[in-house]
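Question (not urgent): is this output format expected?
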Amino acid sequence: MSDGEDDRDDDWFESAFEDDSDGSGDGADDPDSDADSETPFANEDDGGDSPFDDGGSSPFDDEGGDSPFDDDSGGSPFDDDGGSPFDDDAGDSPFDDDGSESGSDDGGSLFGDDFATAFESAGSPGGGSGTEFEEEDFDSDIPRIDVGIEGLDRMIQGGIPRRHLIVSIGSAGTGKTTFGLQFLHHGLENGENCVFITLEQSHAAIMDTANDRDWEFDKYEDNDQLAVVDLDPVEMANSLDNIRGELPGLIEDFDADRLVLDSVSLLEMMYDNPANRRTEVFDFTRSLKAAGVTTMLTSEASEDNPYASRHGIIEYLTDAVFVLQYVRSETRETRLAVEIQKIRNANHSRETKPYEITMDGISVYQQANIF
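Got this back:
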């Protein structure tokens, strides 16, 4: 490759970004060990029928004083006279149904009932008895932000930690791009600087989608508060090393608070070798975190598993995972549902909530459930 070609590979992304920032981009009862029996191997009558009686030479002979199992020695670890840790008369067995320390008729043994009963008596993780997510006062030293979707934000206690890496996973039509645009719109309304990088659509298409919802992306772009950049995924993959090195600096220069990349799946598809794919995507996500910007990635869902991304990589490299999916039934219409799979350093609801996509964006129904 010539020097001129190297320069073009180094400069195309930066020039695209700069152009767009100017406004043109896109128990049981013990087998009650018979207390009357002196040894488990002795016969009650005369010992002559013991299968272990060898006529005097057996190491288990009742008359042998050197038998390690001799009841008269007092040193047997299996002695019934108070040495057994499983003795029914011992008051401090952790599994004793009658022991006051391990359980009584009032409190019950920890294992006296089945696990379902134990869970019921324990109550909800937050101390309440309901299944709904309980909001509590949340103190944290980590700065946090809201996603911008009211019903969804209520499922996250305290908000998402700032500078976290987020991914929304879903199949076609579940609203991944809308999710990303709404995430940016909320930041723009709060005076934040935002960047939208699309590998799938044009700058004009993204702007039309946002402006149709009266999110005024044109105004924010004119005020240099928003940059919408459309990149060719092949060129991005070929120049990923340059982008990875330049992106943190460009984000810092733009003073970006939020960034959306739609979608990471196209970038993953550029690599046939799974090891190379994982390495490249890992390095790319690490550069985003180093840039200090809260980033949302969108990813196509696996064809076999709606809870996993297409290549099963990005959910392990991100700090928060939102799963958008269709819920189909033979007797009911198709519905959309969202689930929070994980958020590092934040408590969140584990329920699956229905949502719809309207001209106002995504609306999550907090009071409804998907069973």
